Amino acid sequence: MLTSSTGGIGRHAASVVHRLVRLGHQVRVCCPPETARSHGLDRSGADVLPLTSIVRLAAADIIHAHGYKAGALVVPVARLRGIPLVVSWHNAVLGSGRQALVGRILQRLLARTANVTLAASSDLVAQAMQYGARDARLGPVAAPVLPPPAVPREACRGELGLGPDDIMVITVSRLAPQKNLGAVLDIARSVRDHPELRFMVVGEGPLRTELEARIAGDRSQVRLLGHRDDVASLLAAADIALLTSTWEARALVAQEALLAGIPLVSTRVGGIEELVGDAAVLVEPGDIAAAVRELLALAADPHRRAELAALGHKRASAWPDEDQVVEDLLTVYAELASRRRQERRMGANSAGGAWPGRGGRPRRRGRLVARAA
Prior knowledge:
alpha/beta, 14 helices, 13 strands
């Protein structure tokens, strides 16, 4: 089950759904129509339903909710019908306002309600346990494999107006507060006397107008490229990747950068350090001076960039891929389904009749519900 998602959560859920269908499982996805369209869920072979059809999840053997809102929406169905519930925690709850308060309430509810909590990073596992999770486990999210670059490196750089001596610093990100893109602009403003450093920001979001105004005022070397379908080509054209988020779990762009052999400079937040280890340069969030020093050092040292690229490839080879992620999920689903069957048998034996609420009819097996939020 999913609520609205145009970013990483939706991409992950789509990856899972497509693979479950290919493996022969019967999958029902409950999500908004725009989420289904943007991630190809409506072409996955799954039974795709709008959020208003949550009641139809009552036929499932397992319900998997991605995100706090999705989990909260489906709790009543899972509890009423005794269906095992898996909830994936993809994001931390940041801030202290009303929205953050509601988010923490949902975290506590879901930690105590879900049969299994899968958290995308170890800090989220710890948070779930602190909130009373019945069973909290690390549930890594693998970056979808990018296609080969459609445009050769030099051609792509030429289209972006880059010369042979320019250093392209790429940030792939939704233009949203959590991504802290103001830090990218602070860094770019600090290196205006190094015109060879050219910053490219790929992505769209609600902060675009605000960022455009700042870039114009700073007169810095930053371009907002908007939404692009050629991220693989842009990564191949880049020299350094920059991630300035205030929090990330297993950031897909960090994975994509290392897989593409691009040296990464990132804030040391959330699950980033456990993801990249020593295969990236990490700085404390908010330390613009440190980020500037590291970028300038990498820009001036092609040997160090090549060294980081090699370390990145080695680190990435140890990450679970999308197939392994689904294999691990199926292990969790099978465990819960087996436990439920055992409980049903025990209930039927003690009551001298059929499992309550089903009128003695045998349940269909193998139906998995992927709910994405």
